[in-house]
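Bench notes, afternoon.
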Amino acid sequence: MFRQMLRAKIHRATVTDAHLEYEGSLTVDEDLLDAAGIRPYELVMLSNLNNGERFTTYAIAGKRGSGEIILNGPTARKALIGDKIIMFCYEFYAEDEAKHHRPTIIQVDDQNRIVTKP
């Protein structure tokens, strides 16, 4: 049996921009992706703390050290610039792996700079 469990989370990131006319995805500062272990083009689930919206897209790497979190394409309608969001990545784990699994959780400040990580 496999269990789908949280593998990575970036907590309370601030949306810095939105590009409705882009083909889709979520641009994330590459430093944040690396710290969380999220790969470009990987599926991410997002939860908007300001309005309760939950949506799914894929991550693309943004400029390192920029702090950018940009909603592209249709996801640009799911949050406003300045909204706080949580990014989640899930993975399937075998039962024996699941018993000992601990996700990577990254917390960021208002400029999307890493505050804590494991």
